[in-house]
Amino acid sequence: MKTKIELDGNVYSIREVEVEGEKAFKIFKPHGAGEKEVTNPNRIKQILDLAKAE
Amino acid sequence: MNNLQKGLGVNGAFVTSESHSKKENRAGEIVTLITREGQRKYRYMKAQEAIAIGQVVSLYQFIDNADVDAAAAIGATNLKGTGDFTAGEFGVTFPSAFVSIDANTGANQTRAIEGNAGTADYLQVERNHGWDVALDGTSDYVTYDMNYVQLADSDEVPIVMGVAISAIASGEWGWFQVAGFCPLVRSAGGTDAIVAGEPVVVSSTAGVARGMTSGGSTVDETGYEVGYALHASAAADTAGAGVAVLLKLPHAAC
Known about the structure:
- The structure holds 2 protein chains of 2 kinds.
- By secondary structure, chain A is an alpha+beta fold.
- Chain A is built from 1 helix and 4 strands.
- In chain A, strands 1-2-3-4 form a 4-stranded antiparallel beta sheet, covered by helices on one side.
- The longest helix of chain A has 13 residues, at 41-53.
- The termini of chain A are close together.
- By secondary structure, chain B is an all-beta fold.
- Chain B contains 1 helix and 18 strands.
- In chain B, the strands form 3 sheets. Chain B has a 6-stranded antiparallel beta sheet with strand order 6-11-8-9-10-7, with no helix packed on it.
- Chain B is globular.
- Chains A and B meet through α1 of A and loops of B.
């Protein structure tokens, strides 16, 4: 699976993390001087589907 | 316009706002201006980050799904969140915050936050309205403030709260438009063109709106509407320019 996806002018970074003992993916994008997490469930699914397909 | 509403100005078609480092009006105050085309409404809110004229803002949800760290009995008026809060932030940084229990024991209870109780690890909630159902270590909570806004972004789940009518500095207060004719809403029409008469919605570029997805709207788009476009635009996002929109944000205008 790809760890970077370009979509709608944004470059998203996909990172595998551990949440309460379970492996999960978190997605981030640049924001200001830092970055912020994508929290929209529909958008997360869209980005992860793209990352798996490519 | 009432003289008690400080910081509003008018420049031709544009109503403008000062950026206040110190709060000059009541948090969430709504003012209606009589304008050449009818009426426009503005809400006084605090910016979590720097915001430019025409950018769309949404409610900033600053602590989400944290666990309660100590049981609270029926009638108790506090909530413990060890390490979750900063001393003095409620009532100051967050001017009018609420806490809701959003999962597990005691779910679906909401209280106003008065401040910290004793130490920064505790929230003092309404002293005359304690918990109706006790909280325990499984209870999850979320805090939010209707008058603390950030740039709206469809990569989150934005509750759209208004459009900036001037630059507002990070951490400062200003007026945001919530109803009526807005002559400048920043838009990325180059991605999804704005169609005259159709909804303008939040995009994944923070603070910037766009048109509906061609070929059909999505569930997200219908929830993230800003208003209706008064003209078409396929132009890319540009600072200081944008589409004219008839705003549709009734939840923010009250």
